[in-house]
Design a protein that fits this description.
609 residues, alpha+beta, Immunoglobulin-like, Neutral Protease, domain 2, Serine Threonine Protein Phosphatase 5, Tetratricopeptide repeat, seven-stranded mixed beta sheet, five-stranded mixed beta sheet, 18 helices, 21 strands, 38% helix, globular, binds ligand BES, binds zinc ion
Length: 609
């Protein structure tokens, strides 16, 4: 038996003896061997070098040594490792293994007997896919550059050498120097600026490495409540505060549902529009796209979502990316419960109905193996499991359970799930066990757990929320399809959700002439709501509505949010002329997108570099 095989065997034996599941330490997307040597604390000392577009400095890793003879194995991708020293300051030998596609390689460090920490001096390279360095022109202010990180799923290893597995929780501290006039923020408690001008941070609660985050730019802050506020560039921070003024109500709603908020502050950071996601639940500091600043709070379910991750995801974390639905499915369910409490049942119902419709479209497009909640990602990149399936199918599973037992039993059950697994990383098997013992024992329930977790498609009896307002929109859409005129449409009181439902309902039956008619009456090409605009622009491409061409190009230039880019490029790529146009636009703006968005759009347009 090799040493690795032996320790895997010992681990399995130990797990079966203690009754814990071994899969929580076996992450196919990490090279680390945390069952032998585990990182428990990360201490960063960094300089942000905007001129060279590099982060440089050192990280000290504090260790727990289960296997005294074993080396420390870390994940590293595209990092330049300069020097490794042990606890006594002398050099340690290290080896960088070959990089696997998209997962980096192992960084193996020989440890001296009994030592509990190492220090790695390093800098990032142009392959640091977590980082996006923005030119001043890509910011609202236009005067200063900007930098942000995106760690999830496996990108933290591109800017920090560590054990980049969601099953390896760490506390961290950071000391970060940046050019004069810029503010540094991290996903941690702020300790102020020290005598050398370095920004200092500390996260005392153990978090998975994908939640270590940093941003730097010209930023200002406005409070929302005692424990909550918003960071943004000075010219948009007031707008952001107004949009998010219900954040404290959301916090209270969340706490009333599933227990105390355990992270101290909850702040939001509004990033420049190239941010590749809608939101990212970095602890104590949610990162958000400015495309949710619609002016009417119509897109703030994103705040409810990222806030909900403070329980589902950050407090109780998927142990591997196979269990991603535990993060996102729970969060969409929880988000919707928060929306119901703060904005009413009808709003929550509309949002869930729209998401379910999107899920059905996704299920049609994706391959059957991608339909499975407990998805098989061995030999696949975590991104291949990313779609609305873990989100919405996961949420509908929880809704099915809720309907089967009633909220009186389901809510305390979820509360116990969070309390009993707080600050732990958990697998689908852990949830299944908990569910069977705590909720399903005694039998007689109508929910087929096996089918939900391992089946393809959507169970025939899956919840099918129907909003009264959206039913009225269905009737309006049917009338429009018949009359093909806007004359009888009564849209004055329509919310964003009703508009979105209407546009999706007529999308395939419109044509260039009817698009022009809709645009004359409703000015959709100049909509200030990015969700509505995105659907409208997609339809414009689909039907050759040329009056929107310039708006398509502007949108693809200014916005880097993958969820918006992907459908527009996909629609363009459907025709030969469209694909040529997509490639032409993309060649011009690709450099403005984050690596996450580039990865997806490269494939859509067949980018050859
Ligand atoms: N954690 C996700 C974003 C993510 C997932 C990043 C996987 C990288 C890999 C975040 O909470 C999220 O789901 N964001 C959504 C918004 C939400 C309202 C559905 C988004 O960005 O669109
Ligand atoms: Zn999420």
């Amino acid at each position: 038996m090799t040493r690795a095989a032996l320790s895997a065997f010992l681990l399995l034996a130990a797990c079966s003896a203690t009754g814990t599941s071994p899969d929580s330490t076996m992450d196919p997307h990490s090279h680390a061997e945390p069952h032998r040597v585990r990182v428990e604390h990360v201490e960063l000392d960094l300089v942000l070098d905007f001129a060279a577009r590099a982060v440089r400095g050192a990280v000290r890793l504090d260790l727990v040594r289960h296997d005294p003879g074993a080396p420390l194995v870390l994940d590293a991708q595209g990092l330049a490792i300069e020097r490794v020293t042990g606890a006594d300051g002398t050099e340690r030998a290290f080896r960088l293994g070959a990089e696997a596609r998209g997962l980096g390689g192992p960084l193996t460090i020989d440890l001296a007997s009994g030592e509990r920490s190492v220090r790695i001096a390093y800098h990032t390279t142009e392959h640091a896919d977590a980082l996006q360095w923005l030119e001043p022109a890509q910011t609202a202010g236009g005067r200063q550059p900007f930098l942000f990180t995106q760690g999830q799923a496996v990108l933290t290893r591109t800017w920090i050498p560590l054990q980049d597995s969601p099953g390896v929780r760490v506390t961290y501290a950071g000391r970060v120097r940046a050019p004069e006039g810029l503010t540094v923020l991290m996903s941690a408690e702020q300790l102020g600026v020290d005598t050398e001008g370095a920004f200092a941070f500390r996260m005392r609660r153990p978090i998975p490495p994908y939640l270590i985050a940093l941003a730097c730019g010209e930023l200002s802050f406005l409070p929302i409540s005692e424990r909550s506020g918003v960071w943004a560039e000075p010219s948009i921070v007031e707008r952001a505060r107004a949009e998010f003024e219900d954040t404290e109500s959301m916090l209270r709603a969340a706490e009333a549902l599933f227990g105390p908020y355990r992270w101290g502050r909850y702040d939001l950071l509004v990033l420049p529009p190239s941010f590749p996601f809608g939101g990212m639940e970095n602890p104590v500091l949610t990162f958000a796209t400015p495309t949710i600043l619609a002016g009417d709070k119509s897109l703030v379910s994103l705040v409810a979502h990222e806030l909900a991750h403070s329980w589902s995801g950050n407090l109780v974390t998927n142990a591997t990316w196979r269990d991603f639905w535990l993060n996102e499915g729970f969060t969409v369910y929880f988000e919707n419960r928060i929306m119901e409490r703060v904005f009413g049942a009808e709003r929550a119902l509309m949002e869930m109905q729209l998401e379910r419709a999107e899920l059905l479209r996704t299920l049609e497009r994706r391959e059957p193996w991608q339909h499975v909640l407990h998805i098989d990602l061995d030999d696949r990149h975590p991104d291949e499991g990313f779609s609305s399936i873990p989100y919405t199918k996961g949420a509908l599973f929880l809704q099915a359970l809720e309907h089967a037992v009633g909220r009186e039993r389901f809510d305390p059950f979820l509360r116990r799930w969070f309390d009993e697994h707080a600050f732990q990383s958990v697998t689908s098997a852990d949830f299944r066990r908990f569910l069977e013992i705590e909720l399903l024992a005694g039998g007689g329930l109508e929910v087929d757990v096996e089918e939900w977790l391992t089946g393809e498609g959507l169970p025939a009896d899956a919840p099918d929320p129907r909003s009264r307002l959206l039913t009225a929109v269905d009737e309006a859409a049917a009338r429009w399809r018949q009359e093909r005129s806007t004359g009888s449409l009564r849209t004055e009181a329509w919310s964003t959700q009703e508009w979105l439902h209407f546009l999706e309902a007529i999308a395939d039956s419109a044509d260039a002439a009817s698009m022009a008619d809709l645009d004359r009456r409703f000015r959709l090409t100049s909509s200030g709501n990015a969700e509505i605009l995105c659907v409208w622009l997609r339809m414009s491409i689909q039907h050759g509505y040329a009056a929107a061409d310039a708006a398509v190009e502007r949108f693809l230039t200014d916005v880097g949010r993958r969820k918006f880019l992907e459908p527009l490029y996909r629609e363009l790529a459907k025709t030969e002329a469209g694909l040529a146009r997509a490639r032409q636009i993309y060649a011009r703006v690709r450099g403005r997108y984050h690596a996450v968005s580039r990865g997806t759009i490269d494939e859509v347009v067949g980018w050859q570099g």
